[in-house]
What does this fold into?
Amino acid sequence: MLRFILAATLALCGLLHTISGVHAQAFPAKPVRLIVPWPPGGSADIVGRLLAMELQSRWGQAIVIENRGGASGNIGMELAARSPADGYTLVLALPPQVSTPFLQKLSYDLLKDLAPVAQLAVIEYIFAANPNAGVATLDDLVAQAKADPKKFNFGSAGNGSGQHLQVELLKRPQA
It folds into this structure.
């Protein structure tokens, strides 16, 4: 019995030795596509380009940035969701992509078709006003806007964008 166990162990070691020659392919073995679902030159594009430079340095492989702006980022997000799930397509998602499924019907399922990989940045919004407008704080702005709503307007990147949703939250009655 001892001879059988010894022979089986030696045979297994020989088998393992031949298998050890098979290694997993190094990642990435080809260029990686980074979809930025916003136009070139904006904050998302800048973050994407900084990320691409860092990944190229670490991986020694090209990172190809593809700007696909439009529809509050949904064009680029859909492109990423429809890409092969092989790890060679990344997408830079921003906060609006999390809320968009609640605002409109999408052709992809955010939770099933995409998987989060890393948080890259924290985006903060600011309100700015002309110094002569008599607005020194956010509370001043809200009070003036409530007193005369037609006097105020705001700019955003579009319906469902982070800027749009922040202003909509400000417009809500406080509990």
